[in-house]
Amino acid sequence: MLAVASPWEFQAHPEVWTLVLAIVGLGWWASRIGPRVLPAGVPVATRSQRRAYVAAVVLLFLSSDWPVHDIAEEHL
Questions:
Q1: What burial letters (b/e) apply to 7-42, b meaning 16+ CB within 10 Å?
Q2: Which of 1, 23, 60, 71 is the most exposed place for a label (fewest CB within 10 A)?
Q3: Residue 9 forms part of a structural domain
Q4: What is the pTM of this model?
Q5: Could you read off the pLDDT of 31-57 as tens digits, one per residue?
């Protein structure tokens, strides 16, 4: 009998986690270096830009990790 992996069984995807952590790290780095390169008094990012960044990172993580990752590997 062949064992078939279910797409609903959790499988870790460290490559996705590494990508998301790298994007978060680059965002943190940009927020730290921004004040050095921008004129005084100019914000690095507005509140809405920060919210959009967080939403984009969360959406990237949710759409790239389990179970979407496994389903895409099987069907695309």
A1: beeeeebeebeeebeeeeeebeeeeeeeeeeeeeee
A2: 1
A3: no
A4: 0.77
A5: 999 999 999 999 999 999 999 999 999
